[in-house]
User: What shape does this take?
Amino acid sequence: MVDSMRSNDIRNQITQSRRDQKLTELSRRSAVIVAGESLLKILQNDLMLEEFYELADNASVLIACRVSPMQKAQIVSMVR
Assistant: This one.
């Protein structure tokens, strides 16, 4: 789950989730949950966006909570 107001915490959450995902990808599927405030910060930082995309692309499902319709549209176009 990616849910923080601080950019460093968000990046750490993405990095840890991706590490966990790599360790378990052969044995189970993964899901990513991202909150609206965190998504705002992710979309403003190219490096964090690239890491988040990698995390989301390798997940079976991506759940976005507390996001605007515009943020949902950005996520959809990012993963297509």
In short: The CA atoms of residues 6 and 38 lie 8 Å apart.
